[in-house]
Amino acid sequence: MPHFKELLKRSGNVPLALIVTIGDHRHHVLRALLKESARWQYLELTIMIGPSTSKTLDALNDCRGNFPILRTLDLYVPSSNSLPNSLSAFEDAPKLRTLVICATMVDKFLLPWSQIFNFRSPHVDRGQLFEALKKAPALQHIDLGGNKRACLSSSDLDDSLITLPEVRSIHIPSESSLDALHLPGLTGLSLEYRDFGSSMSSFVTRYANSLTTLEIDLLNRFPPPILPVLSALPHLERLEVYGPDQDNSAIKSLTVPSESARDPLLPRLQTLHLGFNIDVSDDLYDMLESRSPLSSRRCRETSIGIANLLSVYLGVRRSWGWTDILPKFRERVKAIQDSGMRIQIETGYVYNVSHKFASISSQQARRARYSHS
């Protein structure tokens, strides 16, 4: 404990980024940290339910109004339905904008919902999720990735509808039903892709004319069933795909066809990020060439014009002989790069980090194992 206090003293007045787990034996740590609450800027707080949980909540709540620079709050409460009393400590945090809640119940968390811009919730119960979103009109980014309860169907919620006019991007499992959400400003969609059912098809169709960015994590599905999604989004300008493509089917689907009878997928695509183990192949070169200014296919008549592909990121498979093949491929695409296409190539699998605004913490692996019956 003396060393801990000395560290706090040495940090002076700089803002603090904290990862804190509070059980039954660490209240002395919490008390020391609460004396510096005015410096808290980023907080990951895990509350383990136990005999002294009420004491923990009281200590936090006594500091309500003393978090003037707190911008990001990540709450992890495995047994939130067993909280003995409410957590109101952060209700008056004037700069809080990013909120992550790993808990099934949120009704005991008194929070400044009206000022939250970024919200992530992998576990919140459906009914409580609906109530929370109703109180957050300023939301700009929503992440419900991994939330099997992310089913906001109006038929299950008494035909209720939430309009969130400021939301620009949403991250969801593809089996979600979200017809109770109205997102008139939505431009970005991120999918954990398991199945492209009727509910998700309806969601994508509803926003087909506004979506310009799509990120798909195929979750190791093979073959990658992305054609139904891509076919529905003619205005897409940026595409990121993660997952297997063992037969190059995704690459082939993105190649501008040479025959004039068929319009290409994603005619406005300008940025492409393929974060799976793709092969350095003729199929890959043909796709890049077909979307470059060098392509003869671009001279043909089409009902929709084809945009130049400006930026490409490729996660290339380390297959047999790749040390010889990759340099030759780099040389081969040099003419395409010279025509104005920026191409970045890396080897090995590239994992998708979907939580763009949320914390990537040392507790993430443990939270991934946290499940609810």
Automatic annotation (TrEMBL):
<dbReference type="InterPro" id="IPR032675">
    <property type="entry name" value="LRR_dom_sf"/>
</dbReference>
<protein>
    <submittedName>
        <fullName>Uncharacterized protein</fullName>
    </submittedName>
</protein>
